[in-house]
Design brief:
heterodimer, A: alpha/beta, Rossmann fold, 6-stranded mixed sheet, 4-stranded antiparallel sheet, 35% helix, B: alpha+beta, 4 domains, 6-stranded mixed barrel, transmembrane helix (chain B), transmembrane (chain B)
């Protein structure tokens, strides 16, 4: 078995909300292998999106260990986490989260520019072509459909050739046909670049396309297909 | 209750959150105008109520060069108690030192109203009586300190010695006296008889103040005076307008400040418009829902018009309270800083005027986005729900906006009384507005273009991309800040150029001294002695009398051109036989040397054009109480700006030679010798008065400084409104920046990079606003200096750089004020919330 790209141990996350402190994740421990496609499923409020956020360093764990590519994320500062994501991760969100003041091409080039790549725009153009949007590079997000925006977001996530791709319900805001097209594209890109994909989804058919499915309930792992296979 | 109002009321239950910029902009604009109007009303009321005190009597008859004849005096006495005052410029001397003073010789009846304040405190009669055989003088404290004098010291006026009995702290009629170059000295007029100062031809004025019975009809008294004193060149004033100069000045300055206030309202209008636009953008879903349920575009328009109307009424009311009460709160400070009595109180007219401007401005700036809201369709529920209002309103709303604009400009022109100035100012504001809107659009296009090309400079490219991208931040910031800075830039350029024209350029060519009251027999020896000094480069002299133009082509001059300065008082009149060297005749012909025929006049060309005078027109000029009818036979170029001798009226020598008169002279000398010239001159000719040009310029500069300060405060209020709009824009953009910051951080940007991006885009917008403000400010400054002041214009670099730096600083500060949250918030919080 290959070395794990991600290792979580006794991970907890508590958030201070209007109703007081809420325990979102309660002692999650798991490992993710390189090249694996992992589906995180569960009902709304089960903590799957929060787990993804912690995996991406977008949210700070309350306790426990988060080790990604051999580096412990927990002591890293905001800027350290940002640099880590820039160099090793790509993230796709349900609401696309493109920057509205930037064109499609600029949005895609952004992570490369942040990394100081000189050929940022050439690579971004190639990536936009790969998602079928070569002609829409000069358009702003508000001038594009939801499906197109998500394809731009996909291109932005993979343009830096990250080792890990995180996707949070990437088809949640799209109709079925567009969603399927986006998912094909996501898996196709992953296959092409060989990244580890961690995907949060509600859809069983999507989860079925993953090598491994982890189901969460109430902030804890309910089932792990990998463990079940081992049994 | 109509359906629209019911829905509007329900919508307003959500509170006024998000409307503070709307309310603050409108309230501030209205408050500034209301405050200016309230102070103006207070001054006008003070001048009216205290008219008799300021004038020194219920009525006053002023004569030039002479005392009243016995029958004239008898006429004055028939109207009430009379006090005679003689007023002239002279030199107050002590030892080798001398200084210009405005001498007021008074009788026992002075003052008819109010009281003179002296230090040490004593009755005026006691002070003027003097002691130790010397007549007494009360001298202005400024003059005492300038000459190093104390109470008890002796001073000379002309050839007579006086004893300083007290410092003259305050004269009740000082506000009515108007502008004077020298501080006053008060003496008994009887004591002036043997001072050698009131000889024939000397420039002096006599004022006969009359305390009339209260019931006396002043209009009828004025008519009687006109009948009794016709053709004597007298001037009548009465308590109904005790200080016409000050009234006129206050009227003009406050009208000008109201125009500045209106600019503030225009700046605030940008904020008001942006606030309404943002509110409607937030309500797109509600509007779309209403439309999906069957609401018409008209109903939606009315619903939001009513809401905005309620807010406008609230904003205007807040402005009226603030603008009405602030002057009252600062009453003691205002009273202390003004040289005239003020009667501070809440007055309806200025408040109503401010409310009218506020209502029109609110309507003008909200109708457009409200009209656009009619286009929001039910389909917006399914897509694009946050994009807000777009496109053109229906033509009817565009026409209504035009009408409101016309009403706003029209009412400002009508109420200020300065029609041309208002139209120019309105044109200027609109031009600046259009220029700023176009500039904002241009900057966005340029930023987009540059962003695509500057691929190696990521922070700059991000900032450019943000400036050039969708959204209205660029427009709101550039227009609001740009308009505020434009006013400040224009004031800065005009102020600098005026100071430069007065204090900078003039002294290089201006004479060192003006000498007045040179008796005919003194002229030759004086010129000879001055010419002998190596430091004196030039002396010019001319005979001078004072005259009043009473009629133009047999019609009263005040009816022909009531507002022109040439007919509004007495003017210097000279005469000459041969054409003086350097005279430039622009039209007509100079009378030949030795001409003895009917009186002829050579008139200053520019002033003649302003008065509409032609060759062959006749003027009645009253000199020493005698009307001379003369024909205009030529026009001359007269340049008053060089500080040399310049007379609007020059007559042929035979017409005036016989009249008692003195000479005026200008001396051009090296600065180092100026003191010695004055000392020697005063020793030999104690009767003559020397006005040091440098001192006069300082005095004029002081007055201008006060005016510039008042206008700068007005402009600053505009900038404060601009600042609020900026803060409002930055606050409105905070959510977008928090989101943008989160995405950037997700993609790997450090906080420093995010901050750099925000700071740079703020600076870029500030730079644009400052740059455009500079263009409009310099254009306005150039227009005012060249066409209104008829002077040269040079760009004030210091002021220009300050404006640009101010623009950058203002946007940076407001931008960074709202940068903390985007930097501090963790990406997951933001991204999760928007899922």
């Amino acid at each position: 078995m290959t070395d794990p790209v991600m290792r979580l141990k006794d991970l907890t996350l508590s958030l201070d909300g209007n109703a007081g402190v809420v325990e979102i994740l309660k002692g999650i421990s798991m490992e993710v292998s390189a090249g694996e496609t992992l589906g995180l499923t569960g009902a709304s409020g089960s903590g799957k999106s929060s787990l993804l956020m912690v995996m991406g360093g977008l949210e700070r764990a309350t306790s426990g260990l988060v080790s990604v590519l051999g580096q412990d994320l927990t002591p890293m500062g905001e800027d350290g986490l940002a640099r880590f994501r820039r160099d090793h991760m790509g993230v796709v969100f349900q609401s696309f989260h493109l920057i509205p003041t930037m064109t499609a091409l600029e949005n895609v080039a952004l992570p490369l520019e942040l990394a100081g790549a000189e050929d940022a725009f050439a690579r971004a153009e190639a990536e936009l072509t790969a998602v079928g949007l070569a002609s829409r590079g000069g358009h702003y997000p508000s001038q594009m459909s939801g499906g197109e925006q998500q394809r731009v977001a996909l291109a932005r996530a993979v343009v830096g050739r990250p080792e890990i791709l995180l996707a949070d319900e990437p088809t949640g805001n799209l109709d079925a046909a567009t969603g399927e097209m986006v998912m094909d594209l996501l898996f196709d890109l992953r296959d092409r670049h060989g990244a580890t994909l961690i995907l949060v989804t509600h859809a069983p058919e999507l989860a079925a396309r993953c090598d491994r499915v982890v189901q969460l309930r109430d902030g804890q792992i309910m089932s792990d297909s990998l463990a079940m296979a081992a049994q | 209750m109509s359906l629209a109002w019911r829905i509007a009321r329900r919508e307003l239950r959500g509170g006024l959150r998000g409307f503070w910029v709307f309310l603050a902009c409108l309230a501030l604009g209205v408050a500034a105008i209301a405050a200016i109007g309230t102070v103006r009303g207070a001054i006008e009321a003070g001048l009216t109520e205290q008219g008799a005190v300021i004038l020194g009597g219920d009525a006053e008859v002023q004569l030039t060069y002479r005392f009243a004849e016995p029958e004239e005096r008898a006429f004055f006495e028939s109207l009430g108690d009379v006090s005679e005052l003689v007023d002239f410029r002279s030199m107050l001397a002590t030892g080798e030192e001398r200084a210009l003073t405005q001498v007021k010789g008074v009788d026992d009846m002075y003052p008819l109203y109010g009281a003179v304040q002296l230090t040490p405190d004593m009755p005026l009669a006691e002070a003027l009586a003097g002691r130790d055989g010397f007549a007494g003088a009360a001298v202005d404290p400024v003059l005492l300190s300038r000459l190093g004098l104390d109470v008890g010291d002796r001073v000379k006026l002309g050839v007579k010695e006086f004893i300083v009995m007290a410092a003259l702290e305050r004269m009740p009629d000082s506000a009515g006296a108007g502008f004077s170059l020298g501080p006053p000295t008060l003496v008994a007029s009887a004591a002036l008889q043997d001072a050698g100062l009131l000889t024939p031809g000397t420039l002096f004025e006599t004022e006969y103040r009359i305390r009339t019975p209260e019931a006396l009809d002043l209009e009828a008294a004025k008519a009687q005076a006109e009948a009794a004193l016709e053709g004597t060149g007298f001037r009548w004033r009465d308590r109904r307008n005790g200080a016409p100069g000050i009234s006129r000045f206050v009227e003009r300055l406050s009208a000008f400040l109201v125009l500045v206030g209106l600019t503030g309202l225009a700046v605030g209008g940008v904020g008001v418009s942006a606030a309404v636009r943002a509110y409607l953008a937030g309500k797109t879903e509600v509007i779309a829902t209403l439309r999906s349920l069957g609401a018409s575009g008209g109903l939606v328009f009315r619903v939001y018009l009513l809401q905005v109307g309620v807010l406008a009424v609230l904003g205007i009311a807040m402005g009226l309270v603030l603008g009405g009460l602030l002057p009252l709160a600062f009453g003691p400070l205002i009273e202390a800083s003004l040289p005239v009595p003020v009667d501070l109180a809440l007055r309806l007219r200025p408040l109503a005027e401010a409310a009218l401007y506020g209502a029109l401005a609110a309507a003008l700036f909200t109708l457009w986005p409200l009209g656009q809201s009619e286009h929001i369709r039910a389909a917006a529920l399914f897509r694009d729900a946050q994009s807000g209002v777009k496109g053109w309103p229906r033509p009817v709303w565009i026409v209504v906006c035009g009408l409101i604009l016309a009403a706003l400009v029209g009412s400002a022109a009508l109420l200020s009384g300065l029609v041309m100035l208002t139209l120019w100012a309105a044109g200027g504001i609109m031009a600046a507005f259009v220029l700023l809107v176009l500039a904002a659009m241009g900057v966005r296009v340029l930023a987009r273009w540059l962003a695509r090309r500057l691929r190696g400079f990521k922070t700059l490219r991000f900032a450019l991309g943000a400036v050039g991208g969708p959204g209205r931040e660029a427009q709101a910031v550039v227009v609001s800040l740009g308009l505020g800075l434009s006013v400040l830039a224009a004031v800065g350029q005009i102020d600098w150029n005026l100071r430069n024209a007065i204090a900078g350029d003039l002294p290089e060519i201006a004479p060192s001294y003006f000498i007045v009251d040179v008796q005919p027999d003194q002229l030759e020896p004086l010129v000879a002695s001055l010419s002998a000094r190596p430091s004196v480069s030039k002396i010019e002299s001319a005979p001078m009398l004072r005259g009043v133009i009473t009629k133009i082509n047999d019609k009263p001059a005040m009816e022909v051109a009531p507002d022109h300065w040439v007919v509004r008082g007495d003017r210097g009149v000279t005469y000459a036989d041969a054409l003086p060297a350097g005279t430039d005749i622009t039209a007509g012909k100079w009378w030949g040397e030795g001409y003895e025929g009917d009186p002829q006049i050579s008139f200053a060309a520019e002033e003649a054009e302003e008065l509409g005078l032609k060759l062959g027109d006749t003027l009645n000029v009253n000199v020493l109480g005698r009307d001379i009818t003369a024909t205009i036979t030529s026009f001359r170029e007269v340049n008053f700006s060089t500080g040399g001798l310049g007379f609007v009226l020059s007559m042929n020598a035979a017409a005036l030679r016989g009249a008692p008169h003195t000479h005026i002279a200008t001396i051009y000398a090296e600065e180092a010798d100026e003191g010695a010239i004055l000392r020697d001159m005063a020793k030999t000719y104690p009767n003559i008065t020397a006005i040091r040009v440098r001192d006069a310029i300082d005095r004029v500069s002081e007055v201008l400084q006060g005016i510039a300060a008042a206008i700068t405060y007005g402009a600053l209020s505009t900038l404060v409104t601009g600042g609020i709009v900026l803060i409002g824009t930055a606050a409105a953009g905070e959510k977008a920046r928090v989101y943008e910051g989160a995405v950037l951080k997700t993609l790997g940007a450090s906080r420093a990079a995010v901050l750099g991006n925000f700071a740079l885009r703020s600076a870029l917008l500030g730079l644009t606003a400052g740059g455009i403000a500079l263009v409009t400010g310099i254009t306005a400054g150039w227009g005012v200096m060249v066409f209104v002041m008829e002077s040269d214009f040079t760009v004030a670099i210091g002021s220009a750089l300050t404006i640009i730096a101010g623009g950058v600083l203002a946007t940076l500060v407001t931008g960074l004020m709202f940068a903390w949250r985007p930097l501090a918030t963790r990406p997951a919080q933001v991204l999760r919330a928007s899922e």
